[in-house]
Amino acid sequence: MTIGIRSAVTVLPHGRDSDLPIEGDDEDAFTLAVEAVEALRGPEAERPLASVHFVGPEVPDLEDGLAQAVGRPGLSVVSHAHRRMEWFEAVAAASRSSGPAAEAVVVAVDLSEPRNGTIPRRGGTSASAIRLGPDGAIRLVGTSEGTEVRGGADADRSALTNLFGAVSPSDPPGIESLVDPPSGAGSTEPSERIEPILNALRAASLAPRASPSRWALRGRSGAGAFVAGFELLGPISWRQKGFESGGAPQPGARGGGAPAGRPPYTVSEGAYVPRATYRATRPTRWRLAAAHCGHCDGWSFPAAPSCRHCGRSDRLEGRELAREGLRVEAATTVVPGAQPTEFDAQVARTGAIEVVLARTLQGPLVTLQVTDAPAGSVAVGERVDAVLRRLYPMEGEWRYGLKAVPAGAPPPEPDPATG
Amino acid sequence: MVGGGHTRFGALPEGPRELLRAAVDQAFASVDRGAERRSVEEAFLATLGFSGWQLGNPSAVLADSAGILSVPVTRLENACASGGFAVRAGVRAIEAGSADLVLVAGLEKMTDAPSARRRYWLGVSGDTEWERASGLTFAGVYGLLASAYGAAYGDPREALAEVAVQNHAHGALNPNAQFRRAVSREDVLASPTVADPLRLLDCCGVTDGAAAILLAGADVAKRYTDTPVFVDGAGAASDALALQDRTSLTSLAATRRAADEAFRRAGWGRDQVDLIELHDCFTIAELLALEDLGFAPPGHAGKLVLEGATRLGGSLPVNPDGGLKAKGHPIGATGVSQAYEAFVQLRRAAGARQVRGAERALAHNVGGSGASATVTLFGTGGTP
């Protein structure tokens, strides 16, 4: 059994195709990582998750928050420093934790840097997640550090021998150089950005070659250099999210996102959700955790110890409401100056806020701020999806919650060319 | 009711203590045959504590300011319905036989806080965990109600504007009102949007003010005056805090239940109401109230307003004092101010805004977006 990469997804910040700045900066390393992991665990994820490895900028409470956000409290989440060598180590560790009964995910986030308090439209923020499991199409054989990147036939041969053992001079493994993006592309060091590795892997997996084929990638990680060896057994399914235009991933084509690091410390004076309450109610706030009553078929949201319709408690089952396809029943656009003060910084940047009351497919209503679309563009009767985004800073941490985005088309089918 | 006092409403130089003292002094002074402060056996203070002014224990401030230091004072807070609930508490204290004379006061001082602090406080009585966290203060919450109402019954925009026109016309006749000027429908429609579809002139102001009434048991009321105003029935009810947890977005169940209870207790009917003081914090609230109180079928309140029935001189005068919209809405004071208006109207002492022949009045006070409501029915003691 070969543990390898079975599928991948790249998530870019969601914006609009126009000259206007990207709406809000309510996406960050945390929300993009959550979205990428969730996107990977579609209908095809038949095995449970054993672990998630995160490679990216420092995110407070990343491990617990990510486990909660994907609806798996207690899931093993391992945080790695934002370095390419750490990504290879994460892939190796994830491969070890995956087996016949479980899969693992490695999610990496590259960030562009907000400038002058606004989000640059171009920069190169993305989250790339890969799913590792049995019968994967791309297997990491190993890495070799300290190799001179410029290569040269002798150095290459030495590195390839290190990785693959005996190398036949008549049929050497392929080796390609990773091209780093120009410096200044963002807050992630160009020589530590992860997405180019995945782009190179995808291109290699698509190229016609003998299967299985041995292939290596050489590049820099910070001041050092590496060669990483792979076995390519076939193409992987690779989806992209966050594009309107579709097509192949365009690394760095769209920027956005802000670090999830510590926000400014603002003191709350009322209308206050204490940290402990906020954390305890994450399943409700982030995943619409509710309770379904087997007696009356009614839904209680938030989940309660007894059914809010019939009052009975012996056939209540904890279930989540659907976060897709909510129908808007009321909508209002709140102009600057009428928002609660927690949203002052957001409003100063992006103007009016639209808020909707939207009904889930199961019946309960939820109140959601609209994002990724101009205020006033969502009308009663339309459908929205609920997505996890940054809300506002409170007492030194970012608070996250669901927001509404115009309902997307059903998720795109995997590209037939890539399986 | 044997006495009532009312400060001007608006942006006032007086602080909270001065406002309270002025309203209470006036209430005592209004008692025809006089009342001693030491006769007060129970007192209630309605206040949100807006901007954080004396958030805890403001009861002592009333005891101090009103010169009733030894009297038990209870502070009551049900957001914008605090005053209505305080009046009801006073009525209950008398019904329970625990007091013969009760002071009920309401107060809010809102205009002296910086604007960011005001905005902070204008949202503290809504649902914190979902509504506030999605970016709503009350303008936005009522914007959602107006949106749902329009989706159900058609665009109410003209009727909303007419609600503002009506209340401003009435407010212009009230010397205590914050906004004593008439506005036109065009003015309302041309005012800037606050929370779509609500515009600036659809919203009540931010107001300082205090009001006070003196309640006496019916058996002792004649000691104080020959013309007391009777509380014929008091009703109150609650509902879910957040709109998302309600059964309807086009009707406030708490108003309906409170009204049913009040009429049941009073023993007289809606057709005998001569004037209505209702809770028009936003113009859409007046349409909802007219329907939930039972004066118009669902979706038809706008017609009543557009026909002029709710104007002074119409068949069902609404908010002759200008309502929250023009008189102003000092949160804790509003419900007490509505009782005060019933007091002066039913004693035919309302001057230019007097409703002719007023014998029975209804006062309707709402907390938040309908999380709580009171309906109180007043009469002159005659047989209906």
The H/E string of chain B reads: EHEHEHEHHHHEEEHEHEHHHHEE
- Characterize the largest beta sheet of chain A: strand count, sense, and whether it forms a barrel: 6 strands, mixed
Q: Any low-confidence stretches of chain B, pLDDT <50, length ≥5?
A: none
Please tally the helical runs of chain A, counting DSSP H or I stretches of 4 or more residues: 8
Strand content of chain B: 15-25%
What oligomeric arrangement do these chains adopt? Answer: heterodimer
The percent range for helix content of chain A is 10-25%
Task: Choose one word for the global shape of chain B.
Answer: globular
**Helix/strand/pairing class of chain B, anyone?**
alpha/beta
Overview in brief:
Chain A is of the alpha/beta class. Chain A contains eight helices and 18 strands.
Output the keywords.
heterodimer; A: 8 helices; globular; B: 384 residues; alpha/beta; five-stranded mixed β-sheet; four-stranded mixed β-sheet; 11 strands
Question: Can you characterise this structure?
Answer:
- The complex is a heterodimer of chains A (419) and B (384).
- Chain A contains eight helices and 18 strands.
- With 419 residues, chain A is an alpha/beta fold.
- Mean pLDDT of chain A is 83; it is low at 16-23, 116-122, 243-256 and 414-419.
- Chain B is an alpha/beta fold and 384 residues long.
- Helices cover 36% and strands 16% of the residues of chain B.
- Chain B has helices spanning 16-29, 59-65, 82-95, 115-122, 138-153, 157-171, 185-190, 218-224, 253-266, 283-292, 301-306, 323-327, 331-346; strands at residues 3-6, 42-46, 73-76, 101-108, 193-195, 198-199, 209-216, 230-238, 275-277, 360-367, 372-379.
- In chain B, the strands form three sheets. Chain B has a five-stranded mixed beta sheet with strand order 1-7-4-2-3, sandwiched between helices. A four-stranded mixed beta sheet of chain B has the order 8-11-10-9. Chain B has a two-stranded antiparallel ribbon with strand order 5-6.
- In chain B, helix 3 (82-95) crosses helix 13 and helix 6 (157-171) crosses helix 10 (283-292).
- The two termini of chain B are 19 Å apart.
- The mean pLDDT of chain B is 96.
